[in-house]
Specification:
Blueprint: H1 3-14, H2 18-40, H3 43-60, H4 70-89, H5 97-106, H6 110-128, H7 132-143, H8 148-155, H9 159-180, H10 182-197
Helix pairs in contact: 1-2, 2-3, 2-4, 2-5, 3-4, 6-9, 7-9, 8-9, 9-10
Length: 198
């Protein structure tokens, strides 16, 4: 299923189309379950959590402003609900890492892999267009997963400077991606915003 098809389904589901929402559930159920399992570490608990996520998301769907951000929005709901569940019940252990890997990999189709591969290549092209400092800043935050404080120590500058650099570097990358693929630039902008607030 392409991102355009997903966007159309989200728009239909926002108007109350239950069949469209059902298709979204089928498309995203494995990834939501995998994320839930990674958080709560119990298959039955993860299954319950995934069901709760989709019920909650259906109720809140009219509040989603940009249908293209559905996947990230669903991930944030899953993360928040997992935290709430763990806070109430305490951590659960016991999920087999092999089960996690199998579930996480189940939803990927050859088309998904091709689309991701193309997007990664285009993203690399965009990064290559940037100045070294912009590229290093984005790689530290998004690829190496450094926090703002860690980056401030590494780059030997205040945290506020890192925030400004990230903002500027994201905008420059978006501009570079616009020249390569405007749709990818929009997806990156949405994803960057989600990751920055996660």
């Amino acid at each position: 299923m392409s991102w355009n098809e997903i966007t159309v389904l989200v728009e239909k589901a926002k108007t109350g189309d239950r069949e469209a929402y059902g298709e979204l559930v089928v498309r995203f159920q494995n990834s939501v379950y995998a994320m839930a399992l990674g958080r709560v570490r119990d298959p039955l608990e993860a299954q319950e959590l995934a069901q709760d996520v989709f019920v909650h998301a259906m109720r809140k769907l009219p509040q989603l402003r940009d249908p293209r951000c559905f996947a990230g929005w669903l991930r944030r709901i899953t993360a928040r609900m997992a935290i709430n569940r763990l806070t109430r019940k305490g951590p659960l252990f016991g999920a087999d890492p092999e089960v996690l890997d199998a579930v996480a990999g189940r939803e990927r189709t050859p088309e998904d892999a091709l689309e991701v591969g193309e997007a990664v290549e285009q993203l690399k092209e965009g990064l290559a267009e940037l100045k070294p400092l912009d590229r290093q800043t984005l790689e530290a935050f998004y690829i190496r997963g450094r926090s703002l404080k860690q980056m401030a120590r590494e780059f030997e500058v205040p945290t506020g400077t890192i925030k400004r650099r990230l903002h500027v570097a994201r905008q420059r990358l978006k501009d570079a991606l616009e020249a390569i693929d405007p749709a990818l630039a929009e997806r990156f902008a949405g994803l960057a915003g989600e990751l920055a607030t996660a």
